[in-house]
Design a protein that fits this description.
It holds the Pfam family Cyt_bd_oxida_I. It is a multi-pass membrane protein. The protein is mainly alpha-helical. The protein contains 15 helices and four strands. The chain has one domain. The C terminus is likely disordered.
Length: 417
């Protein structure tokens, strides 16, 4: 395998793995913020406990996901310096905004939310989690602005072979970015919905003593599933209006291939078959999720069924990976379908790679892939461990243990004068 293919596979594995963390983080942050809002406004004790339990799982996923994101960005300088030289002035702008405006604010306010429990005013504390949630959306938006520009480059001009930003408004309102953002937003909610329903199903199947807690959690998960499964496909389908003809085929395919051949020379400009396979898997898995959503919609009014439906509990546990599979398949369709372009119609992938040998790329491939495998394993283990413990095992926001009382000193046998 040559250096180009190794670099592509490495980026596919690391970027795809990082996106798995992002989806659950976006969805859980929203649901936790809503739970805390209910608890703060109504004084509901069960929603306060739900905030702590699901919030702890959110923090675990967020913390490990941050590491994957930081490591992933090293690849741009290591493997794709050609891209940085030619289009870094445009592509790097939204990424810089994501880091400065969104990431630092999000992580700072998350720290205040974690350590400000029972120390800050309850309304201030509620405001913190909403700032965290909104900046998480902002972070995802800026990343998708960068990715949307790779799909449909706008608002730039080429000066001496280097892309220069000329219209920030066009860059920030690129339809491929806006629609992808809404698609990912509801995809994150769908991911959190299946995660919450699966964990709740596990505890209800085991006949937990926390029946009310997990019955409510199951209802929230199923309601979120029903509300998000249709917008996911709606915003996903809307993106086809802006999809490249080399990806979707149709009447414009021959014209696009002829134009690229005249401008850049002969090449295989049609999308690889892997992209089509990704589309088929994505649609098939979404159909299964839609079916589960319809079942939930029909059964939703019957609260006792949520507690006693043992078969449904197992189904929801098994279904937890479904949104992950659909997201990865959709990502393959979106990204692989752009080939052979790094920036569609501007920069080919082979021209974006760094001038390094296969040995260097192999070493980075082994290191990055191994690290990501460890991080994914650690995250899955931590989530499973704390999810199994239930709300009684939630340490988020718990009061520190009281210091032990001083031992009574033994009576002295020394005479006192």
């Amino acid at each position: 395998m040559d250096a180009l293919m190794l670099a592509r596979v490495q980026f596919a594995l690391t970027a795809g793995s990082h996106f798995l963390f992002v989806a659950l983080t976006l969805g859980l942050a929203t649901l936790v913020a809503l739970m805390q809002t209910r608890a703060t406004v109504s004084g509901s004790a069960v929603h306060a406990r739900m905030t702590r339990f699901w919030g702890q799982l959110y923090v675990i996923n967020y913390a490990v996901g941050i590491v994957t994101g930081l490591v992933m960005e090293f690849q741009f300088g290591l493997n794709w310096s050609g891209m940085s030289r030619m289009v870094g002035g445009v592509f790097g702008a939204p990424l810089a905004m994501e880091t400065i405006v969104a990431f630092f604010i999000e992580s700072t306010f998350l720290g205040l939310w974690i350590f400000g429990w029972d120390r800050l005013n309850r309304w201030v504390h509620l405001g913190l989690i909403w700032v965290v949630t909104l900046t998480a959306y902002l972070s995802a938006y800026f990343v998708l602005v960068a990715n949307g520009w790779l799909q449909r480059p706008v608002g730039y001009e080429m000066v001496d072979g280097v892309a220069r930003l000329t219209d920030a408004g066009a860059l920030l309102t690129n339809p491929t970015a806006i629609l992808a953002f809404l698609h990912v937003l509801f995809g994150g909610l769908l991911t959190a919905a299946f995660f919450m329903a699966g964990v709740s199903g596990y505890h209800l199947l085991r006949r937990t003593a926390e029946v009310e807690f997990f019955r409510r959690s199951m209802r929230i998960g199923l309601l979120t599933l029903v509300l998000s499964v249709f917008p996911v496909v709606a915003f996903g389908g809307a993106q086809f209006e802006y999809a490249q003809p080399t990806k979707t085929g149709g009447d414009d395919l021959a014209a696009a291939v002829a134009d690229f051949t005249a401008r850049f020379g002969p090449d295989d400009y049609e999308a690889p078959k892997l992209a089509e396979a990704g589309q088929v898997v994505m649609v098939s898995v979404w159909s299964v999720m839609l079916l589960l959503g319809l079942v939930a919609l029909v059964k939703f009014p019957f609260g006792r069924w949520l507690e006693r439906g043992r078969v449904f509990h197992v189904v929801m546990m098994v279904a937890v990976p479904l949104p992950y599979v659909a997201m990865i398949a959709g990502w393959v369709f979106r990204e692989v379908g752009r080939q052979p372009w790094m920036v569609y119609g501007v920069l080919k992938t082979r021209d974006a790679i760094s001038d390094v040998g296969s040995g260097t790329v192999v070493a980075s491939f082994v290191a990055f892939t191994g690290l990501f495998a460890v991080l994914i394993g650690v995250n899955a283990w931590l989530l499973a461990r704390f999810a199994r413990r239930g709300p009684e095992g939630a340490g988020l926001g718990a009061a520190p243990p009281a210091p032990p009382a001083p031992e009574a000193s033994a009576p002295s046998l020394t005479p006192t004068f």
